[in-house]
Please model this.
Amino acid sequence: MCGITGIHGKVDGAAWAAARRMTASLAHRGPDAEGHWTDDQHVVLGHRRLSILDTSDAANQPMVSWCGRYVLAFNGEVYNYRELRDELDYPFQTSGDTEVVLAALREWGTAALHRFNGMFALALWDTAEERLLLARDRMGIKPLYVATVEDGLVWASEIRAMLASGRMAPRLDRKGLVDYLQYQTVHGPGTLVEGIDLLPAGHLLWADDNEVRSECWWDAATAGLEAARLGEPWTYNAQPAAIRVRELLTDSVALRMRSDVPFGAFLSGGIDSSAVVALMSEVSEGKVATFNVAFEEDEFDESQFARRMAQLCRTDHHEIRLRAHDFLDAVPDAMAATDHPSGDGPNTFVVSQATKKAGLTVALSGLGGDELFAGYPVFRRTLDLMDKQWAMAWPKGLRRLVGRAVQSARPGVASRKLADLLAGDTMDPAATYPISRRVLLDPDVARLLATPVTQDRVAVWSRSALTRSPGRELPVLSRVSLAELHTYLQHVLLRDTDQMSMAHALEVRVPFLDHRLVETALAIRDDIKFPRTPKPLLTAALDDRLPCEIIDRPKMGFTLPWEVWLRGALEPLCRAGLRTLSDRELLHGPALDRLWSDFEAGRVSWSRIWNLVALGQWIERHDLQ
Model:
């Protein structure tokens, strides 16, 4: 795990200075080494290293191929590097994965990307062709931001490094702002900064002196449909499906346990993290180190479930005991570490900090299990809505009337979402998913905005990806999984995990997002995944490893006393964040005042306030105009 930066275009003293500023801004991502490479004409590559595999200086980056033609700056891990190494006729000088990635790209070109099993963002310079390749992993686990500027191309692992280049004006992107208000995040390819884009997951980009072009090299819907068309028994029969999931998840876990530094696993005691730990214990020759954050306050604590699972798996279990106020105390540091505003950031920040202090450098996580195996309410809700397709036979005027009546009888977000659904033309997931996932609806957004802007990236994406082949041809639950993978997972969970874990130089690996498992889960029929019980396919796959008290326990999460904090210790920070949004004429001051009054009166949840505060604080820190 590392950080990469780069500039393509004219290389002069200013470019060198910009490259050094960019790389220095990523010191937290790679405290072990810093490096740059340039041809003094077209390109500068920068790298910050967190040593995981082959910790020797020989594995520092940027790395030059033995023939001198190719130069690589690489962030992430390719877990199957040992197997790939055996296939390559190359005079290796190191034992890690970076040189294998370099040799594979030299030998196979971009076809090598299809052979990589891992998470990565990379930049490869071809000195002979004078051409740049940027590429990002299939699931978008590792970030890569790009910007086309007047004198070339700039790229980096974080937005803060892009701004440190000084190559683009720090201006807020208005469409990104609308996206953030609607969904409390920004969905790619745009960002909150005008001119800075996120290279989409499974995409690559070519750049030379004549053009910059990007293309998709892997797509989840296409891969899932191709797997479904194989017609294997595991796509339609529950028992073979469970066996297939068990085999793939076991192999994924084993691959992600490859490390030359201390590693372990997060263990919350939920189904997903328990499944990962159970399989780690199964394939490991020694005891697995597990880490659980336990709260002093009983109402927040779920450590007994983690303790039970640790006993069953005989792990070397560590309980990191925290008070709720440990989170409160960490808020300023968490805000400073945030590369993209997030409402959940402080939670992940504190857990990562505590885990790193306990001696871990690599941690396996259960992230992705909910998205693949129908773990969220949105899966059941989507099926329920499709069963009500008959309502679409009513005249639209009648449906609108019913919607208004429901809103009058039961004022609130839920009734307004129902009214929006009734005003539409279909109960297909392409139409219902964006409404289900919205935090603020159009009237709320319009009241807040100082300048009207209309944009719904999730709705646009859903209409395109879920109504056309191949997305349309997937089972319904798989279509919801596809939507979750492309929106909430990539642009909230993975983004938060990356920025908050890397703030402490902690690498988080996600076995559920092995592309083979993703393709399999998308190809399996709905009746096998239908959530009558929690994640039936996953629990069937591990029925000999997961006890009933883990499977049947209520789904928990962080329920910290944010309501109290925002009215007390955090009120000055909150008011400052909201004032930034008003003073910079991004949001209406009177609308923000009403929102705060509604919060104090208990009519608005703390999360709606906090997401705006996080946005305001982030804008102030980066001085966005």
The first helix runs from residue 13 to 24. The mean pLDDT is 91. The first strand starts at residue 2 and ends at 9. Residues 221-373+483-551 form a domain with the Rossmann fold fold (CATH 3.40.50.620).
